[in-house]
Write a structure and sequence with these properties.
About 45% of the residues lie in helices and about 10% in strands. It has about 475 residues and is α+β, with helices and mostly antiparallel strands. The radius of gyration is 23 Å and the shape is globular. The N terminus is likely disordered.
Length: about 475
């Protein structure tokens, strides 16, 4: 009965927008079945396709609502493609998988459809979402998307190297503490220095002490996390940039310094290159998205399975206290398009995909990049089996100190200006101070273009999403 009621609702929504095209089928009964099977078009990146294509047919079998056209673009091109639809209003897709960064712009452009009316009836599992994440699908008091991916950073170390008695003795003699999960970025740098090894003596490391993203369009996130741990904030109450001060400069210098212990190609790497490199056993540590566990613990493809320690992100000592911050470095949200033909059907599908049960399956596939984001994931045996209990516990503890990215209208422009100047400093073309001064100048221009008064109000609301804890419980 539930399926019939849902399908009846869907057909009512569908009937006014489906057009006059004939339903395919050789016989009347085939055409009736095909006519009741509603196809939704989805915009996503190839990173998400495989996991979603496993799950959506299950929903289709139960409801008649399935996947039609699949529009795939690169993960960093999702927002541009979405914003093009905001102009075209073509209805080419019904829902899409996008990051929180895109929400302010797509909402202001009228593309992202508020879903509060559907959620009031459907009661999605938002109460199970770890604190702070669900709010990233909200903007100016309205819900525009359902959160699906806890992408706050985690630090992974090679546990087998840490447990070697001779290595521990040498490390302690040099640095004065026993090697393990670091409390501070200084300690992580010490670990990176110590465990970088040139086994064949040719002057080029064969085993690297650290990995983190430094590529164009990606690396700025790793600086921003350090900046937050220094106690920094991007803007003051009047939206004047605060990145130029001591906190920002010190964080950028540290960010650049750690790169000496990373692979020489790291400036061109993102997830497709970094994960296999670490899983092949070529590095001692990596700070990245929590989906690294799926690669590191892969039963066939990883050489380091069972050899990893999952750590809280390090921090800085600020006013005598340790402050850790694990930035929500990407994250994915399911959005419903205002211009799609089947908004309500799309909503029911995304509620299903973000439910406790289905989300637990999505985060376990070895080729998935969806990461745990629900309290129930902590005890789900499928999630634990795919990632290890230590990883899941540590990841969700990191989430307690997870600040958002710069989720304001014009976010892509703010981020790109920051990233461009960080890259210039990383390449040695300008100083850390100059990089952040240029960033501040660009940010002021972007704020004035968008409208300072509106941005001040949006920033005031966003600040409430920042963690108040210095360290996780």
């Amino acid at each position: 009965m539930k399926r019939r009621a849902l399908l009846a609702t869907v057909l009512l929504v569908w009937s006014g927008t489906a057009g006059a095209a004939e339903v395919p089928g050789r016989t009347a009964d085939e055409r009736a079945i095909n006519g009741a099977s509603l196809k939704l078009n989805m915009l996503t990146s190839p990173f998400h396709t495989k996991a979603l294509e496993r799950e959506i047919p299950i929903f289709e079998k139960a409801t008649g609502i399935g996947l039609g056209d699949l529009i795939e673009v690169g993960i960093l091109q999702i927002q541009a493609k979405a914003m093009a639809e905001a102009v075209a209003k073509s209805g080419s897709f019904d829902f899409w998988v996008g990051d929180p960064i895109s929400l302010p712009d797509t909402a202001e452009a009228g593309l992202a459809r508020p879903i509060d009316e559907f959620a009031a009836r459907g009661l999605p599992d938002v109460d199970d979402v770890v604190g702070g994440f669900a709010e990233q699908g909200r903007y100016k008091g309205k819900t525009y998307g359902l959160f699906a991916d806890g992408d706050n950073f985690i630090l992974v170390l090679r546990k087998d190297w840490l447990e070697k008695p001779d290595e521990r003795q040498k490390f302690h003699a040099k640095y004065g503490w026993g090697p393990g999960c670091p409390d501070t970025y200084e300690q992580w740098a010490q670990l990176a220095e110590f465990f970088t090894r040139d086994f064949d003596g040719d002057g080029v490391p064969d085993f690297y002490g650290a990995m983190a993203y430094r590529a164009r369009s990606w690396g700025w996130r790793w600086w921003l996390q350090r900046f937050y741990a220094k106690g920094g904030m991007p803007f003051d109450d009047a939206m004047r940039p605060l990145v130029v001060g001591k906190e920002g400069v010190e964080a950028l210098r540290d960010y650049i310094a750690l790169t000496r212990y990373m692979p020489k190609d790291i400036l061109g790497w993102a997830t497709p290159q970094a994960y296999p490199f670490y899983a092949a056993g070529h590095a001692f540590s990596i700070m990245t998205y929590p989906s690294i566990a799926l690669a590191a613990e892969h039963p066939e493809k990883s050489t380091v399975r069972g050899k990893n320690a999952y750590c809280l992100v390090p921090g800085y000592i600020v006013s005598g206290k340790l402050v850790r911050r694990s930035i929500q470095g990407f994250g994915n949200i399911f959005y419903v398009s205002s211009y799609g033909k089947h908004a309500e059907a799309a909503y029911w599908l995304i509620q299903w995909l973000t439910s406790k049960e289905v989300s637990a399956r999505l985060v376990t596939y070895t080729d998935s990049v969806f990461d745990p984001f629900m309290k129930s994931h902590r005890s789900d045996p499928r999630v634990i089996r795919s990632r290890t209990k230590e990883m899941v516990e540590t990841h969700l503890r990191n989430a307690q100190v997870s600040p958002p990215l710069i989720l304001l209208q014009g976010a892509v422009e703010y981020d790109d200006a920051l990233d461009l100047n960080i890259q210039e400093a990383l390449l040695g073309r300008i100083s850390a101070e100059e990089a952040l001064n240029r960033t501040a100048t660009a940010w002021e221009r972007i704020t004035d273009q968008v409208g300072r008064t509106a941005q001040i109000e949006a920033w005031k609301a966003l600040r409430r999403a920042f963690p108040t804890k210095n360290v996780p419980d």
